[in-house]
Amino acid sequence: MLMKENSKEYSDTLEHAINVLDKHKLQYEFKNHALYIQHPTKDWKAYDYRFTTNRWGTLINRRNKYRKHYSCKNVEELVDKYILSEE
């Protein structure tokens, strides 16, 4: 992802987030400026991760039922603490 010279610096980049997800062998899709990460064992559950702001939400049957988003430090924290710990 190319950034403009005057664009703000993000704590995570798209490449970094994709590398972490590939390392953990998680399925994901990039669309609408977000990564949609499929839960490894629950087909009905996914996560909406905004790498520019480190905000994420839980999707049940592709919908954010409660319209809530949470914050995390980085994509590693999201994967280790929230996605893989639920198995």
Descriptive account of the structure:
With 87 residues, the protein is an alpha+beta fold. Helix content is 22%, strand content 26%. The protein has two helices and five strands, in the order H-E-E-E-E-E-H. The chain has helices at 14-23, 75-83; strands at 28-31, 34-38, 45-50, 55-60, 70-71. It has a five-stranded antiparallel sheet, with helices on one face. Strand 3 and strand 4 form a beta hairpin. The mean pLDDT is 86.
Number of separate helices = 2
Total strand count, please? Answer: 5
> Quick one: overall form?
globular
Radius of gyration: 13 Å
Q: Could you say which structural class the secondary elements and strand pairing correspond to?
A: alpha+beta
Mean pLDDT level:
86
Sketch the topology as an H/E string, one letter per element: HEEEEEH
Brief synopsis:
With 87 residues, the protein is an alpha+beta fold. Helix content is 22%, strand content 26%. The protein has a 5-stranded antiparallel beta sheet with strand order 1-2-3-4-5, covered by helices on one side.
